[in-house]
Design brief:
- By secondary structure, the protein is mainly α.
- The chain has helices at residues 3-23, 31-57, 67-70, 79-100, 110-150.
- It is elongated, with a radius of gyration of 21 Å.
- The termini are far apart.
Length: 153
């Protein structure tokens, strides 16, 4: 399924959820439904991340999976902070929806904004894992350099 197909399917599911929600307004979501929503959302987010990662990092053969976020260093902004700025945009869209009960941009739903937040959180976690690895590697290299600097020639 291509990106356009995924978007169409997403809109169809959003519409179906709205119709079902109207039918069952008096019925609150139970744990089983919540966990089903979690599974469906995670599957959809993974598909979206796979598609967008290729688009935003330089294509299928790109080697830097965080290229889009790492480019924020040009402006002296830490890549994770740049990512968080984008996440805040999505939070603002949801805030607008809760205030106005509608969004002005029709090609992105409030569900899309929620899914983007999930993916941004996963990307931030991955970037922070990589950063910790680099810090640990630098510390290890410094220890090795210190050891070699004390050894006689």
């Amino acid at each position: 399924m291509g990106e356009k197909g995924a978007i169409r399917a997403s809109r169809y599911l959003d519409k179906a959820r709205c119709q079902n929600a109207r039918k069952t307004r008096s019925k609150l979501m139970n744990t089983e439904e919540l966990l089903r929503l979690h599974d469906e959302t995670c599957q959809k987010c993974k598909l979206i991340m796979k598609q967008k990662n290729s688009d935003y990092t330089g294509g299928k053969n790109a080697t830097d999976i965080f290229a889009n976020f790492n480019s924020s260093t040009i402006l002296d902004i830490h890549p994770v902070q740049g990512l968080l700025l984008r996440l805040i945009d999505k939070v603002q869209r949801i805030r607008s929806f809760t205030n106005d009960k509608q969004l002005q941009v029709s090609n992105e739903s409030v569900d899309d904004a929620c899914e983007d937040i999930i993916n941004y959180a996963i990307l931030a976690k991955a970037m922070l894992i990589e950063e910790r690895k680099k810090i640990e590697q630098n510390l290890e290299n410094q220890k090795q350099e210190k050891i070699y600097s004390i050894l006689p020639d």
